[in-house]
Amino acid sequence: MTDPRPIAGEPAKVSDELEDWSQEAGKRTLGSLIERFSEKSFALLFILLLGVPALPLPTGGATHVLELIAALLALQLIVGRRTIWLPQRWRRLELAGAGRRRFIARLLKTIRWLERYSRPRLHGLFGHPASNSVFGLMILTCCAGAFLAPPFTGLDTLPALGAVLISLGVLLEDVLFVAAGTAIAAGGIVLEIVLGKAVFDAARNLL
Q1: Structural domain of residue 165, as residue ranges?
Q2: Helix, strand, coil: what percent of the chain each, to 5?
Q3: Number of folded domains in the chain?
Q4: What angle do CA 110, 64, 173 make, to 5 degrees?
Q5: How remote is the C-alpha of 6 from its chain's centroid?
Q6: pLDDT digit string (tens) for 82-97?
Q7: Is residue 184 part of a domain?
Q8: In a domain, 4, yes or no
Q9: pTM score, two decimals?
Q10: Domain contains 146
């Protein structure tokens, strides 16, 4: 059987790196993921944190903590940090629970599927201080859109899904995914504004 891993001299795929990390001996903590993936850990954590509000289910504000943590990481990118700072208590968080393992397994499967169709499109735009700051600003905007969505409406889904796609685009260095995520997030935020204005106008007319 042909070995699916890249030959010597080729860059390792994100899915291969994530699988290697998930099978490492010892504890698989948030800190070990950050150390393993270095700058890529920003995008991975955005996917892990915002993947839950990206699900098409009304959360009633239960995911606000995840959105706030993602916003904190986005601010670090904006100010130019190349490595993640998190309190030691958070870094010791284990990602080996049954629920987290299933989520990582689904994430790994999704990334492998996307890698079949993705290719480095305008990859020279990625990995620079300026582009990292723009990435952070985009994620911060998505977090604000998800956080400010009216509870139990499910409107936080589109900004969060946009952030996940943007992060996947950064991981795979594919500007097409970034563009798709930006369009979805922008559409979700515009929808929030339009519906919010409609509700405000209706309430004002009742007074």
Answers
A1: 14-206
A2: 65, 0, 30
A3: 1
A4: 35
A5: 25
A6: 889 888 888 887 766 6
A7: yes
A8: no
A9: 0.82
A10: yes
